[in-house]
């Protein structure tokens, strides 16, 4: 099992290296051209790829982290408030990707629209200190 997560703090990609270098270090067996293609699928083009990772916005960091999960081929995704800092097109892209995702997904969100867009086999809701299955 290969677990991947995107946390609320968006702790990835904060260093002085370029996004391309940071991504290549995180997925060492991937060619730079493949990394560029993968990042482009998440809306991160050449202007982003060559910037220092520390200069990325929170939304750009989120998209880079999601691209990294895809690049690593994770089969258990843990997403904690993944729509924070994303614009509407990025949220829609994320919803489509999650809806097509075939692995196990643990999604923590307050985003009702995302909850409706992503089809799951089981949903648990936490309210007033109680967990119920929906």
TrEMBL record:
<dbReference type="Pfam" id="PF00005">
    <property type="entry name" value="ABC_tran"/>
</dbReference>
<dbReference type="InterPro" id="IPR003439">
    <property type="entry name" value="ABC_transporter-like_ATP-bd"/>
</dbReference>
<keyword id="KW-0677">Repeat</keyword>
<dbReference type="GO" id="GO:0005524">
    <property type="term" value="F:ATP binding"/>
</dbReference>
<dbReference type="GO" id="GO:0016887">
    <property type="term" value="F:ATP hydrolysis activity"/>
</dbReference>
<dbReference type="InterPro" id="IPR027417">
    <property type="entry name" value="P-loop_NTPase"/>
</dbReference>
<dbReference type="InterPro" id="IPR050611">
    <property type="entry name" value="ABCF"/>
</dbReference>
<protein>
    <recommendedName>
        <fullName>ABC transporter domain-containing protein</fullName>
    </recommendedName>
</protein>
<feature type="domain" description="ABC transporter">
    <location>
        <begin position="30"/>
        <end position="84"/>
    </location>
</feature>
